[in-house]
Amino acid sequence: MNKKILVTRSSMPSLDEYIEEIKDLWDSHWLTNMGVKHQKLEEQLKEYLKVKNVSLTTNGHLALELGIQAMKLQGEVITTPFTFASTTQAIVRNGLTPVFCDINPDDYTMDVTKIESLITDKTSAIIPVHVYGNICNIEEIERIASKYNLKVIYDAAHTFGVRYKGKGIGSFGDASMFSFHATKVFNTIEGGCMCYQDTTYAMELLKLKNFGIKSESVVDVVGSNAKMNEFQSAMGLCNLRHVDEEIQKRKTVVERYRKNLNEVEGIKLSPIQEHVESNYAYFPIVVDENKFGVSRDEICERLKEYNIFSRKYFYPITSSFDCFHGKYDVHKTPVALHISKRVLTLPLYADLSLDEVDRICSIILDLKK
Ligand SMILES: *Cc1c(COP(=O)(O)O)cnc(C)c1O
């Protein structure tokens, strides 16, 4: 049997490097609660991400959930159903109503021409997602947000390190959430952060991630517990030293995929966006069964026979989740529905060899009818 290839593989420093980084924890006995490593990682990330304020959390989801709470949003939030469960759930868990906007058929981010018709007097924010590393139409979202006085929080979980016109992608909108989950381009095992323009939100999040505690005797907001601990921070400090190299390796893998699958009838690749320095986070293909001859599901199954695991990501769209009991009409976002039934993300990680990429592509191409 061939070696198992999963859709992703977590980046790790050498064991020696990690041990070196955590050694002093045995002196300090300070394991969490915004310790030295937590503070150091926040500083380094501020620089790396080119953002003003960084607040680290134990995962990306809680950064988003508490980030929304910090802004005290009300009523309705315009968002996309073509995302990971987290985005929609963070909105709903804040007692807000998600209003689903459709996506572009080419880069899968929010279709900005459809936002204005969804705005009502209850709308308080737009929460778009930079999908697979493709960035949203930032200028247009900013124009609409300022015209209607709405907050903008980006789910930037897929875009660690991405630059747009030379600026850090987390420096746009009012805030951006990054995820440092094990499967992401940069990981702290589990982890994440919120980046803010306005320092008052960063102060609020500091309380919210620590039970709303303002000072020893004052708790003035109902918070949660979402602190990133020192072992996670240590992993981050190590991985950050290697992340540029990891992104370069991902680039080589992506370029090989593009070379092999470019201009195959029935397989659509993500566009290469202008003014964007990519992080090569994912490699999605969209399969048109009528032109390619077999469906996305058949490709996924065939790869499994070779011990290769791709993912139907994002499928299903979040608005169709059972937990929402049919509350949202999925046909109001036809493009998102269409893409979710045809998209497949192929294995991609820094150490995936080019031979393995070739093998994956030839298994796919052999299916073409
Ligand atoms: C990974 C991810 C999240 C959640 O991040 P966690 O760190 O796993 O909590 C949110 N949104 C998107 C689009 C993601 O891919």
* Poorly predicted runs: none
Distance between the termini: 26 Å
How big a fraction of the residues is strand?
15-25%
Task: Please compute the radius of gyration using only Cα atoms.
Answer: 21 Å
**SS field, number of helical segments:** 12
- Overall pLDDT metric: 97
Oligomer: single chain
Helix content: 25-40%
Question: Which ligands are bound?
Answer: pyridoxal-5'-phosphate
- Largest beta sheet: strand ordering: 1-9-8-5-4-2-3
Counted beta strands? 15
Q: How do the SSEs run, as a string of H and E? A: HHHEHEHEEHEEEEEHEEHEEEHHHEH
| Biggest sheet architecture | 7 strands, mixed
Q: What would you say this structure looks like, in words?
A:
The protein is an alpha/beta fold and 369 residues long. The mean pLDDT is 97. Helix 3 (36-49) runs parallel beside helix 8. The protein has a seven-stranded mixed beta sheet with strand order 1-9-8-5-4-2-3, sandwiched between helices. Strands 7-6-13 form a three-stranded antiparallel beta sheet, with no helix packed on it. Strands 12-14-15 form a three-stranded antiparallel beta sheet. It is built from twelve helices and 15 strands. The longest helix is centred in the middle third of the chain and has 32 residues, at 230-261. The relative contact order is 0.17. The chain binds pyridoxal-5'-phosphate.
